[in-house]
Each structure stands twice: as structure tokens, then as C-alpha cells.
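Exercise: predict the structure of this protein bound to adenosine-5'-triphosphate.
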Amino acid sequence: MVAGAVAEQGLVIAQGLRYVNAWKGKTVVVKFGGSVLDANGGGTLVQDLVLLKGAGIHPVLVHGGGPEITRVLERLGKESTFVQGLRVTDAETMDVVEMVLAGRTNKAIVSMIIREGGQAVGLSGKDGRMLVARKYRGDVDLGQVGEVHEVHPELVLQLSAQGYIPVVASLGIGEDGMSYNLNADTAAGALAVAVGAGKFVLLTDVPGVYRDYDGTRELISELRAADVAALIEDGTVSRGMLPKINACLAAGTMLVP
Ligand SMILES: Nc1ncnc2c1ncn2[C@@H]1O[C@H](COP(=O)(O)OP(=O)(O)OP(=O)(O)O)[C@@H](O)[C@H]1O
Ligand SMILES: [Mg+2]
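Solution:
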């Protein structure tokens, strides 16, 4: 019995080492939703990132902060409005988005990583013109919601190579220096492509894409790119899941594992 358990442990370690060897030196972009940080304080997830870094794999963290932004806006007596999963962002909302994302959430994650024995540097997409944005142009005017126009990943790559885990808040900078509110999934997908990530992982408050989200909730365990359009069309993928799926599609066509 004891010998069996030891053999099993050995197997797990051997499998783990094979995985680590295959991924050594590669970059993995991980996106945390604000809700993930809310749910468990991000503790175990941050531990895993520090372990990966120690094993020679390079995680780059991109985060959102939706629920916290909504709470702060509520305290200021401002209601949040979303159109297709994107927060309508007037100038006052933009100030709050920037304060919460770059000031509070970003530095809280940096603190967690340091507490777990890792090294982290917190940045926003404005730093080093990492995420150059333009105003998002959809059917409705969403204010300072931006779309990623250019990505300059040099800063992230340099920090990563120096042993830091870069932590990126999803803000963009306009050509004129203006701040843009970027959906964190979209920002993470664009960064994953630019750093040549081997993997792109999105962590949120649901286990995956559900069929009939508002009803029986049946988890779709595997989803092929060719089947996505139909799920968007029939409304299965909506709200916060929409930018996630689109980011996966964009990154999936570009990433080379
Ligand atoms: N088919 C679906 N399956 C699962 N979740 C869905 C589906 N359609 C819409 N959603 C919504 O997507 C949400 C996840 O996206 P959301 O934007 O709320 O979180 P996040 O992206 O992790 O956080 P943040 O926006 O702060 O970065 C789920 O909580 C759910 O309400
Ligand atoms: Mg979201």
C-alpha cells in the first residue's frame, strides 16, 4: 500500500518534470478577472504562478477589475452600463477605472506575488506604450473604451527575462497620451500574440462556456474555432464571455506552441 502510494507520487513528479521541461523558457500569458481576485483573494493562483516562474516558465499576468470598479462607482453614485460586455466609459468613469486598476488591483497582485516569495513589477498598458489604443468604434458610443492598435512588448519581455513576473493592468494609451479603458481579455490576447506566448489562459468566475447559461448550464468542455460564430449568433456566448471568446480566437490563430 505504502509502496504503491510512493510509486504513484513518483509518477506524478515524473509527469510534472516532463511538463516543466517542455515549457521551460516559454512565456505563458494568464488573465485574471476581477471576480477571480474577489472569490479567493487570488492566493493559490498566485502561488502557482510563483512556482511556474521558479521552474523556468515565464508567466505574464494581465488583470481586469470589473467588480471593484463597479463598487467604487456605486459609492460615487454612478451606475455602470455595459454594452456587449464592455463598460461605457465617460471621463469620470475613466478616472475611476485607472485608479482602481492601476492603483489598487495591480499593486494588490504585486503584493500577493511578493508575499509568496516571487518578484513582480506592476505596469499598466500605458507604460512603455505597451498597449497603444484607439477609440473603439461600434454601433454605440462607448466613450473612452479603446481597442488595441499596437503592442510594444519589450518592457514585459525584459522584466520577464530579469526574473520578474510582469503584472499588467488593462489600460491603453492613445497617440495623444489619452487613457483608454481596454477590456482585459482583449488586452491579454493582444499581448499574448506580441510576446509569442506558448499558452494563453483566461481565469474567470465560471468554469468555462456554458450552453444555456441562464438555465440548465451545461458546460461545453471543448470548443472549436469553427463552431464559435454559431454560439455568438444564437446568444449562447454573450456579455463578459464575448470578449473572452474573441480574444481566444485572435490569439489562437497566432500562437505557436
Ligand atoms: N455562455 C456563457 N458561459 C459562461 N459565462 C457566460 C456565458 N455568457 C455570458 N457569461 C458571463 O461571462 C462572465 C465572465 O465575464 P466577466 O467579464 O464578468 O468576468 P472577467 O472577465 O473574469 O472579469 P473582468 O471583466 O473584471 O476582467 C460570467 O460570469 C457570465 O456572467
Ligand atoms: Mg470581463
